[in-house]
Design brief:
Radius of gyration: 22 Å
Structural class: alpha/beta
Low-confidence stretches: none
Strand content: 15-25%
Mean pLDDT: 93
Oligomer: single chain
Number of strands: 21
Length: 428
């Protein structure tokens, strides 16, 4: 199930996207209060924007814009809204998004072709280990996508290893959709309860919310820990509520594939200019085919690399690397620039660490401080020294480390109303 446009030449894909872009620009210029105001303020005529390069004439949209003018992005009357979702608010106040029937159809199509990209067919059964409630778009997208693809789905929800294994053994799903660190909890439960994980019938896991690869597409420490114990394939998928689109790996596992019929991708530097291929920049997207709340040149805050070389799977679409970090979570620590994913990779190296959170704050002189809270059955100075030495070897600096109870860290990782684990608490 590969859409024909994804197999076309890159020149043909570009022509196709430019046609879709013109349609989208005419739509927002007529229906979006926010973009009407933006075009007027900058004397922009949408008729002058005919190529993807012309997009640079339009100022970028930011998360601050969405938070400050949330309702002004809505392009339809209220009676056309059939579903309300909110962002997770990881880097600020949550933002509401309103979806029409057409948007839900687009969401289902997006996830169906994303699942197919990872090798899922109508003969597979998926076990969903994330919430569908709490105004969470992802869980709904997975359910709608599985239905459109014709695959079965088991809606277990988040957490509770005992219930997850009960469903796996009873219904025998072939794919799991889960936060990868939770897979380690499933493995630990299976070991404690005599369950042979490698005869469970699970072929692969679609991993959400945490990175499982390094920027060169090799498995990171977390990914290696899982696959060393469980003989399954791991597929990265990257998405957000704002995009209503997913970038999922194919079987060659060398980056998340763009769906050009759904989204235009730019990767920009600090001056909002495109970076060269292979350089890190901020992912900036323009949605295509969204009816309720379309976005133009929206800066996601996620830093990554873009890859345009055709993939062995036959697709000629742009691929995205794993996220290097989030722009707002950049840390300057003792003269070194750090991002949380690099620290998470170091911490995942240690089997003695049962759980952790990373707290970022500023001291009285305005410089960044890092405190890592860990839960471990081996609370001793020797473990702290080992962790700090590994930090110095990998990242050149060692943060403060503090032992806490697993219960305390669980409360920090899953605050009230949270829909996914919080690994980084930024107090700056």
């Amino acid at each position: 199930m590969i859409p024909e446009i994804e197999l076309q030449s890159q020149a043909e894909i570009k022509r196709f996207q430019e046609e879709q872009l013109r349609t989208m620009l005419n739509y927002v210029s007529e229906h979006s209060p926010f973009y009407k105001r933006l075009f007027s303020a900058h004397n922009i005529s949408v008729s002058d924007i005919t190529t993807l390069e012309d997009l640079r004439k339009i100022p970028c949209t930011t998360k601050d814009d969405l938070q400050q003018f949330n309702d002004d992005f809505l392009c339809v009357p209220k009676h056309k809204i059939v579903d309300y979702v909110t962002t997770s608010g990881t880097l600020g106040n949550p933002v509401s998004f309103c979806l029409t029937d057409k948007d839900l159809e687009r969401l289902a199509y997006n996830e169906a072709i994303s699942f197919a990209c990872a090798g899922i067919t109508k003969d597979d059964v998926l076990q969903l280990m994330t919430t569908m409630d709490r105004r969470f778009m992802a869980g709904l997208a997975y359910f709608l996508g599985a239905r459109q693809l014709g695959a079965g789905i088991i809606r277990v929800g988040a957490g509770i290893p005992e219930l997850q294994w009960d469903s796996i053994l009873k219904f025998q799903p072939s794919y799991l959709i889960a936060v990868p660190s939770f897979l380690l909890k499933l493995i630990a439960y299976a070991e404690q309860n005599g369950i042979d994980i490698n005869s469970s019938g699970i072929k692969a896991a679609i991993c959400i919310g945490e990175p499982i690869r390094n920027t060169d597409f090799t498995l990171n420490t977390l990914g290696e820990k899982i696959t060393n114990l469980w003989n399954i394939d791991l597929y990265s998928t990257y998405a957000s509520t704002e995009m209503s689109t997913a970038f999922t790996e194919c079987k060659h596992q060398n980056g998340g594939h763009q769906h050009p019929e759904l989204i235009i991708v730019e990767v920009l530097d600090e001056q909002d200019n495109p970076v060269a291929e292979g350089e890190v920049g901020e992912l900036t997207i323009t949605t295509l085919g969204v009816e309720g709340m379309p976005l133009l040149r929206f800066k996601t805050g996620d830093l990554l690399k873009i890859h345009n070389k055709p993939c062995e799977c036959g697709r000629n679409t742009t691929r995205l690397s794993p996220i290097s970090g989030r722009k707002q979570q950049m840390i300057k620590y003792k003269g070194t620039t750090l991002y949380p994913p690099a620290m998470e990779n170091v911490l995942n190296h240690f089997s003695e660490i049962k759980n952790f959170v990373i707290e970022i704050s500023q001291n009285t002189i305005g410089t960044d401080e890092i405190l890592i809270k860990i839960a471990s059955e081996k609370e001793n100075e020797e473990l702290i020294l080992k962790i700090k030495d590994h930090f110095r070897a990998k990242l050149r600096v060692a943060p403060q480390i503090e032992f806490c109870s697993d219960e305390h860290i669980q409360k920090l990782r899953f605050p009230k109303l949270s829909r996914k684990p919080i690994l980084v608490i930024d107090k700056r």
